[in-house]
Amino acid sequence: MAFRSSSDSVGVVGEFCAYRRASLFYGRNEIDKFPDGKCGLRCAYHGWKYDHDGNCIEMPNEPPTSKFKDRIKLKSY
Ligand code: FES
What we know:
Layout: E1 2-4, E2 10-12, E3 28-30, E4 40-42, E5 49-50, E6 56-58
The structure holds FE2/S2 (inorganic) cluster.
Residues 17, 19-20, 22, 43, 45-48 line the site of FE2/S2 (inorganic) cluster.
């Protein structure tokens, strides 16, 4: 999956989300102002969000203090 973030970084990451393997083809490419100030590709299923390096940067279904997202990374190129 290739995308260009609103900070003009190009991301080439694995197609499938690390949670339930939904295709990120249907993901939303969010600009850096929406809603958390970080641009990236948000999975359309449960809303996990990935940056251009494939790092998970947001999990709406986890408490804000959770560090679980720091252990999640998509394959990136
Ligand atoms: S499958 Fe991607 S967040 Fe649930």
